[in-house]
Amino acid sequence: MAWQGWPAPWLWVSGCGLLLVAFVLLVSPRCCRARRGLRGLLMTRSQRLLFRIGYSLYTRTWLGYLFYRQQLRRARNRYPKGHSKTQPRLFNGVKVLPIPVLSDNYSYLIIDTQARLAVAVDPSDPRAVQASIEKEGVTLVAILCTHKHWDHSGGNRDLSRRHRDCRVYGSPQDGIPYLTHPLCHQDVVSVGRLQIRALATPGHTQGHLVYLLDGEPYKGPSCLFSGDLLFLSGCGRTFEGTAETMLSSLDTVLGLGDDTLLWPGHEYAEENLGFAGVVEPENLARERKMQWVQRQRLERKSTVWTQGWGQAPSPAIWSPKPWPVGASQSSGLFKSELLEPKRVGGWAGFPVLGPFSSFCSPSQCLSPRSARPPWERSAPTTHS
């Protein structure tokens, strides 16, 4: 009865023990490492929570749109002619025109020059895209959105209102603004001679898509518009996925031909190759590519439309496919400039494509692959 109304004795003992441990951690000079670890753990968890709150506000409320509009105004003032100098590519009547927007983004116009029809990819700055449409003298009939983030979808509203017959394509999983025509894995969008296939590549966002322009109809190279999945020697952050999901999505584009041109959503080449240099400073292929990128960026020239995937290796992500241990080269996508394979955790892993930032460690990427996305369909749809 002496303890009635008071906490039980074991609670008192536990509380005193915790206070003693906290006092020792705070006072003892020998526990500074433990103090730093505890403080780092608390800060990591709080930062993670704050990031999730901020990301939800950015993607699910109009605060994200207001933030995007502020970015747009600043970029227009800072780069009135765009952040980089770009060059269009013409392939037998099909023209690909990169448009530098915001501070490091790229939008694209894919033009059938005979039919005078155009498709816009990720038109984040409607003014810049509209200026290119008027300069080329074409009709915008479709917008292809890789994912929902405002720096890729911010121009959907203005362009779809200005061009009444324009269709907005994207994944229904992603909540893309002003979406009119949902796409699933392997669906095809047809505009004139343009045959553009959507590939589901979740990881950066849940419904991220990339778009593959088939080169066969116009007898030219195929083109991959990769959004935030893939950059020159890098891949996107995993905002809504895991390392396994991102690696599975990268595998989706592994089978593309070695002559496929890469048209990424950002100018991240120098940062990616710099990160790769920290991981493998003796990678000569990376060093050669870095020198080329630095020459381009000194003149503010773009590094997009990289041809030959093997020219841009980065060692930060390892493919867990069982390559022959003694092999010196891979085939297909990364065949030309890779170093000797390294055996990691029982797998012979080739350096594949590394992150823009701290995407994942090799050990994380060696875990088993996740299954194919549930929205993949056995019978793709063709949109014309």
Task: Walk me through this protein's architecture.
It is a single chain. With 384 residues, the chain is of the alpha/beta class. It has two domains: 39-78, no CATH class; 89-365, Metallo-beta-lactamase, Chain A (4-Layer Sandwich), CATH 3.60.15.10. The chain has ten helices and 18 strands. It has helices at residues 9-27, 32-60, 62-78, 126-136, 150-153, 156-162, 243-252, 269-279, 284-298, 362-365; strands spanning 89-91, 94-101, 105-112, 117-121, 139-144, 167-170, 181-182, 188-191, 194-200, 209-213, 223-227, 230-231, 234-235, 261-264, 306-307, 342-344, 347-349, 382-383. Strands 1-2-3-4-5-6-7 form a seven-stranded mixed sheet. Strand 3 and strand 4 form a beta hairpin. It is globular and about 85 Å long. The model is unreliable at 1-6 and 307-378 (pLDDT under 50). Its cofactor is Zn(2+). Residues 104-266 form the Metallo-beta-lactamase domain. Keywords: Hydrolase, Membrane, Metal-binding, Transmembrane, Transmembrane helix, Zinc.
